[in-house]
Amino acid sequence: MGIRVIARIRPQQQHELGKDVIVSTASNTESASDQPTLVKIPNPKNESEDFTFQFSGVYDHTATQQQIFDNEVTPTIKHLFNGFDVTIFAYGSTGTGKTHTMRGSKTLAERGVIPRLLSGIYRRARKIDKDSGGKKTVEITLSYYEIYNDKVYDLFEAPEKRTLAGLPLRDNGSKTVVVGLTERPCENLKDFEKLYDQANVNRSTSATKLNASSSRSHAILGIKLAVTTGDEVRTSIASAIDLAGSEDNRRTQNGKERMVESASINKSLFTLAKCVEAISQKDARVPYRESKMTRILSLGQNNGLTIMILNLAPVRSFHLDTLSSLNFANRTKRIEVREIENEPVFKLPPRAAVPSISGPSIQRQPLRPLASTVHNASSMHAPNNPLKQNDKQIKAFSVYSDRARHPNIETRPCQGDPGRRSSPLKRPAPSDTFMTSASRPVKRRSPNFINSKTQPTISKAAIEDMIERKVTDILAARALDQPSVAPQPEISDEVQRRLDLLEKRIDVQDDGREQGLTFLLMAKQHAVRGEDASALRMYNLAKDFFPDNKKLETKIEKLREKIQHNKEEERRKEAATETKSSKTLLLTTTRKDCGRKDDGDDDYQDEAFTDQHYESDGGFHYKPKIRNKRATAGGISSTEVGMGDVETPRTRQLLDIVNSRDIKQIRLLKGVGAKKAEAIIEALCAGEEDEDEVRMVTNLRELGQLRGVGAKTVENMRLGLQNSMDAVSE
Ligand SMILES: Nc1ncnc2c1ncn2[C@@H]1O[C@H](COP(=O)(O)OP(=O)(O)OP(=O)(O)O)[C@@H](O)[C@H]1O
Predict the structure, then answer these.
(1) Is residue 413 included in any domain, yes or no?
(2) Which of 187, 209, 547, 680 is most buried per CB count within 10 Å?
(3) Atom nearest to 243 CA in ligand 1
(4) Which residues of the chain, if any, have pLDDT below 50?
(5) Nearest atom, ligand 1, residue 103 CA
């Protein structure tokens, strides 16, 4: 079954009243229902024609929160109770109503999908309990986290408890889990509202020019249901996701911090678009792992039901954003999702070997290293190893208990259960919901072979093993924000030294490199715009993450010199202005008498001032120098692209679009289709890994030299840009 995509067009906001509404809904004339399923929007390049997109449901500005919920979400609740996972996510550019749809506001009528979903779940749980006379019970637990600047933070924890690196992700079967995430049992709607409101205070939001309360993060609420009937426990998860909105930074006028956030938001949404594109092209490689959001969302990999709510703004100022969101949604609806319910698990009689776990329904456990070493694990992964074929895939950690773990609970798959619904697309269900006691790793006893006497004879492999385990334990403890749990054996200086090195490497990989690259990207963006001081600040921030990068140091040094030089020029200009002003004053009094011309004034022969002119009104105006050098490198001459190194507003706009790497915008350039847009982005990204820097195109020649572009395309892009921008500007 495909992802169910519905579109919701929000009403005009106060400041948009009287503006041009360009998005409309329509019913499909071939359908029996008169419920709208079509969205219409003019072609920005030719306003006389409309683009039409069809979705499973379409709602205009009159749609209420209740309608959206009743029509789209209510039907999923029964599936949830039958063991299917449900994912609902809101997608759209900033300010289009995602948070309004998902969270809504506090009044009953304006409550969004999330509180209504919880309300529906509790109502059904109570009914089940009542109808079964208490024989069937439902336990609900919640987790709530945000992905901010590609780091995962627990929203049930106070912000001051956050670590720089955020919470790590681990693959667990076919799912991605967040290690160390708090799970809160929640018995009723009132408790939920309290928890949810508190957690939302922790969410990263800020005022931007485009939205007074803009979400700066992707927020994921996990609602876990455990339905117990006798000794059978059926578990399912509803994930309600409020994605951050893509932003066009030429419109946001974001400051430094907002720009960093924005770059991270745009990057993750771009990765999401790449994943959707790869899935629809049936590519072997889908780049889920390029961002945490796509890893967690795992579109097309997650089983169960998925609903995407596409939020749209109706007015012209969102034209290009709306169009690219519609294109994205159009591709998303074709993604097939396996409709498989989760395996039920069974309680078995107590077993002496299983450690007793007490406490409430959710019991987090410290991470436990596996008995097998990673070295062994890798050999077990070999698909053609006949001896190991039946072994389970070895995981580095037993992550955490994700539900009530009663001492006498043992799980086993429900083989041959006639009651189990299955899908023709069914594949072996993941074993990630409950770990069977057989597969649950036994707590490893600390090796005692390392002591001062035996130390000199430790083999290299044993050292590797120890380091691996020590790192594992440290990471586990760090993830849970508590001291290392297993007693550590004494370790030699050599082991400690290598351990420190490894930890350092992990730290840099975990939170350094990506953060550093973001700063580099920001620096480049500022530099291209000529905002040298901001660029320098960003380069300096990046330096902390790439301390030994000579290229970066040189760049910083050059930029510093340039800024210094500019400052001096500025001072000289100011001084010259003052002199000139006094001279002008003098001249105006004498001009009548001598008919003097300014040209002959020696003070203005200095090169620095050749571009300063008196305007006709007598005011002082500085015009930056324009270089007229002809560009011929790479076979592209200035005449071929219509201009040389001259940076007109149109050129700058074109370069900004390309450098934004926003596939939605690049695709809309004249003569650029999806493939070419991707090729451009790929060409920009090529080689960045090695150079620790983000490549930016700084002029048309460079753009023409990108693989697959060429002079003609550049010319087309430029010409088309002017027309389409004119068409959408208000
Ligand atoms: N259906 C609607 N009815 C009334 N007001 C709406 C509706 N949708 C959105 N709004 C209003 O529009 C504004 C922007 O909405 P919202 O904050 O939900 O956007 P968003 O897509 O979540 O933005 P961001 O990505 O920046 O977080 C808010 O003031 C919200 O109340």
Answers:
(1) no
(2) 680
(3) 25
(4) 210, 249-252, 350-456, 476-477, 479-490, 503, 507-508, 510-511, 585-644, 687, 689-692, 728-730
(5) 18
The answer to whether position 95 is within a domain reads yes
Give me the residues paired with residue 185 across strands: 141
The predicted pLDDT at position 259 comes to: 62
CB 655 within 8 Å of CB 528: yes
pLDDT value of position 214: 63
Q: Extract the tokens encoding 672.
A: 């650029």
In whole angstroms, what is the distance from residue 450 CA to residue 408 CA?
36
Determine the angle formed by the axes of helices 256-280 and 319-332, rounding to 10 degrees.
Answer: 40
Q: Among 94, 99, 106, 210, name the best residue to mutate to test ligand 1's pocket (greatest count of ligand atoms within 8 A of Cβ).
A: 99
Number of Cβ within 10 Å of residue 167's Cβ equals 25
Tell me what pLDDT residue 722 has.
67
Closest-lying ligand 1 atom to the alpha carbon of residue 216: 27
CATH code, domain with 198: 3.40.850.10
How far is the centre of ligand 1, averaged over its atoms, from the C-alpha of 311 (Å)? 9
Domain ranges, residue 557: 549-622
| C-alpha of residue 267 to centroid of ligand 1, in Å | 22
Distance from residue 211's CA to the centre of ligand 1 (Å): 8
Tell me the CA–centroid distance for residue 421 and ligand 1, in Å.
Answer: 39
Ligand 1 atom with the shortest distance to the CA of 311: 21
Same domain for 285 and 200: yes
Q: Is the C-beta atom of 42 inside 6 A of ligand 1?
A: no
Strands 169-172 and 175-178: antiparallel
Residue 98 near ligand 1, beta carbon < 6 Å:
yes
**Ramachandran angles phi, psi of 378, nearest 5°:** -65, -35
ipTM of the complex as predicted: 0.98
Ligand 1 pocket, residue 182 CB under 6 Å: no
Round to whole Å and give the CA distance between 70 and 407. Answer: 40
Whether the pTM exceeds 0.90: the reply is no
Known binding positions for ATP: 92-99
Same structural domain, 304 and 245:
yes
> DSSP secondary structure string, 144-181?
EEEEETTEEEETTS-GGG--TT---EEEETTEEEETT-
Query: What string of H, E and C letters represents the secondary structure of 201-233?
Result: HCCCEECCCCCCCEECCEEEEEEEEEEEECCEE
Same-domain check for residues 616 and 646:
no
Domain count, the chain: 3
- Residue 86 has what pLDDT? 92
Residue 12 CB less than 6 A away from ligand 1? no
Please check whether residue 584 is in contact with residue 618, taking contact to mean a CB–CB distance below 8 angstroms: yes
Please give the Cα distance from 690 to 687 (Å, whole number): 6
Per-residue pLDDT reduced to its tens digit, 367-396:
222 333 223 233 333 333 333 333 333 322
596 and 690: one domain?
no
334 domain residue, yes or no: no
Are 317 and 58 in contact by the 8 Å Cβ rule? The answer is no
Instruction: State in Å, rounded, how far the first CA of the chain is from the last one.
Output: 41
Q: Is residue 205 part of a domain?
A: yes
Measured distance CA(591)–CA(584) in Å, rounded: 9
pLDDT, tens digit (0-9, with 9 covering 90-100), for 189-208: 999 999 999 888 887 665 55
Residue nearest to atom 23 of ligand 1 (CA): 95
Please, which residues have CB within 8 angstroms of residue 233's CB and are 6 or more apart in sequence? 226, 227, 344, 345, 346, 347, 403, 409, 434
Phi, psi (rounded to 5 degrees) for 38:
-115, 145
Run of H or E residues at 621: strand 620-622
Give one DSSP letter per residue of 639-657, joined into a string.
TTTT-SS---HHHHHHHHH
Picking from 603, 622, 641, the residue at the C-terminal end of a domain is 622
C-alpha to C-alpha distance for 69 and 55, rounded to whole angstroms: 17
**Helix, strand, or coil (residue 54):** strand
Q: Are 710 and 697 in contact (CB under 8 A)?
A: no
d(CA 641, CA 705): 12
